[in-house]
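Here is one chain, start to finish.
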Amino acid sequence: MSGLSGLMEGRVVLVTGAAAGVGRGVAAAFGSAGAIVGIGVRRPEAAEETSAAVAAAGGTPVILKCDVTDAVQSAAAIEQLVRDFGRLDAVVHNAVSGRSSEATDFENTTLDEWEDHASVTVRATWRLAVQAYPHLQKTQGAYLLMSSPAGIEGSERAPFYSAVKAAQRGFVRALAREWGPDHIRVNSVAPLAISPALENMKILEPERVKRIEGLVPLGRLGDPETDIGPPSVFLCSDEARYVTGQTLVVSGGRFTSL
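Its structure:
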């Protein structure tokens, strides 16, 4: 990804939920842009492949134990990056509930399910913003949320996932207004990309995946690193210094009306 070269050179970025899928791809893309990438994961041993991908791309990987539902861990991850590298230029909140791929009829949902989705997506979005704010204020940095088309158009049998992703979009708009005078930009990306769940589906239900791909004008699902990563890096870079409060739908044209 030569187009990213030097775009985030020497900048420090925290990417949550970076063990696999979109998180890993975005982390690697920041590596291609020359960033120091904090790989925020619940289990550090699960981040080795992401760390290798960031290093191979030309970045500096830093594995951080960061369960975003734990206020102490997320604060410690941010403070470690600032202590070791002297700054924080961007936070990309990508982590989602492990139940995000589970289909559930609304009448069968439970409070426990709601709490799981809300803690990872809504509460962590707020908490990371509070914890990162003083550091992003100093660098005039960026806060990027990985949202979803489900948060804009809704998703059948995913009521909680749709709800928390919609909440993130509202958060982006409000916080962009509040942080604008501090020159901190707040945006989100709504991707349609290959994920571990879709990889499993390719094996178990290949025809279903073909149907999904058939709905995409560009004819394929996005690659986390080469398709979702570059727009994410762009929104956190100086090239997007006049972009804030926006949700960029990166879906190969699947969602043209969002």
